[in-house]
Description:
Oligomer: homodimer
Amino acid sequence: MERVDVVLGIDIGGTNTEFGFVDKDGKCVLEGSITTNAQEPAERLFERLFAKVTEMELQAGDGLQLVGIGIGAPNANYYKGTVEQPPNLNWGIVDVINIVRGYRNLPAAITNDANAAAIGEMQFGAARGMKNFIVITLGTGLGSGIVVNGSVVYGHDGFAGEIGHVIVVPGGRECGCGRNGCLEAYASASGIRRTVFELLCDDNDASLLRDIPFNQLTAKDIYDAAMQDDAIALKAFEFTGEILGETLANSVAYLSPEAIILFGGLAASGDLLFKPAQEAMESNMLNIFAGKTRLLPSALTNGNTAVLGAAALMWNDLAAAKN
Amino acid sequence: MERVDVVLGIDIGGTNTEFGFVDKDGKCVLEGSITTNAQEPAERLFERLFAKVTEMELQAGDGLQLVGIGIGAPNANYYKGTVEQPPNLNWGIVDVINIVRGYRNLPAAITNDANAAAIGEMQFGAARGMKNFIVITLGTGLGSGIVVNGSVVYGHDGFAGEIGHVIVVPGGRECGCGRNGCLEAYASASGIRRTVFELLCDDNDASLLRDIPFNQLTAKDIYDAAMQDDAIALKAFEFTGEILGETLANSVAYLSPEAIILFGGLAASGDLLFKPAQEAMESNMLNIFAGKTRLLPSALTNGNTAVLGAAALMWNDLAAAKN
Lengths: 323, 323
């Protein structure tokens, strides 16, 4: 039997850490998940993780050859191989690559989840063949991965690509970062929830959402209500798409990408979000860019997208090392 | 006598076209200028230009060896070698590189003036040794050249880097591009003039600027008034620096550059502009970027900066071709 080269992709989240063996075509051949236990030191997480990975290797037998490890994590620094003061993990500053090398002496790299998503789209998804594009991840927050000339933009310190923290409403909503008016406070799962509560205050439309308290309201509830023509939910998507689209027109002025790809939970809302976003982007676009940048949904639909992105980071590094 | 390699740098402006022979250290050894005659076709400009260049070559004798040609021009496309619908020249779409090759069979490249300025700063100026930085050109308008990983960001179509057309005040001042609220309508020589007129309306301070009509008021007048402690002029610089600094904090969130370099007429105003810009940039900065991006004045002070930038474009391409 021929051995298949695979990369171990690891996605470290605040609650769960997911991982899988991913081949060079983006097929996840084996996968697993453990709890992150955010209060534990990082060393304990990797101890438990590699126990599971060893089990998976035994299960795969001689069929798989592990050739590298790619990791997506919050506040990760690609240059330094570190995770630095992640808001949801009690880690402080940790040299993750050094820990990983203690378990497997293989090429290993780490980046934040949005950059991993961008490389995932480039390797396996909607950005195949593109050299200049942006991925916007719409989860609890808003992350972004920017690709220029086929490479992720890390900036001088490794932290570039924080479009979620572009201030779009000076003096606007309080953001988790301590400032006010960041895009993330409007265009994200938590942003659209805030928008619903603003609309419940400002407008008198009857709404299914008037019976759900703030802490229980999810983006899924808002989506479900919108699918039932709930006026407040529909307006919330309209507003969210508009403010996102307006900002993306500015992003195009910076970077003139071939496409902007929307990734993550809220992006799965389809036309509810894409239609107002596309319209606002085009109607705010500088004339020389009009109609040239495509707004696309993620095409990383085959399995755990965050694990695929993390694996793609390493496949991309391995391909670059060959050239 | 040893021959010195030089590049012909050409800066095409709406009024004058300036050019010079620039050596690889950024020294302009011979220079000249002709009127652009914006109503003429491009072919006539280059006919007159190369007649002058031939004269300069004769004057230089055997001392200089021309090794390439770099051109800065409005609405230039580096990928295609074209100038496309420049607002101030009656050219339409012109294949400039093709015309230039008819005169000299040498490597030739063209880009817009802000990108040329960025490459100039990287080769000869304030960005020497930097791989990630932004140059903001503050002239009549506001241009920008973005450098990532040592290369200018052109985007998928060659037109990236239009920070002057990021919308900073939704529904704000009418911009020359046909939209409203672009940064250029606030932070530029024409923007600060508009700000003065807003302040002359809103405030009752006595001001030297109350005696100058709109069409005659220059950025130099505003600078001179500010140096005499004119309240309106001082407030105009304060406001201009603030809105520029706020936008630059957002630029850092995109690109995390090592430095942002202010270039051009208005940038020569020194602390009047830099102080409020620096303060607004830092007070609007996402915490992970705080204090890490330097705001610097151009260090292209040796001769005609636009000609140096245009020449640097070709020196940069020649160096890349060698590697």
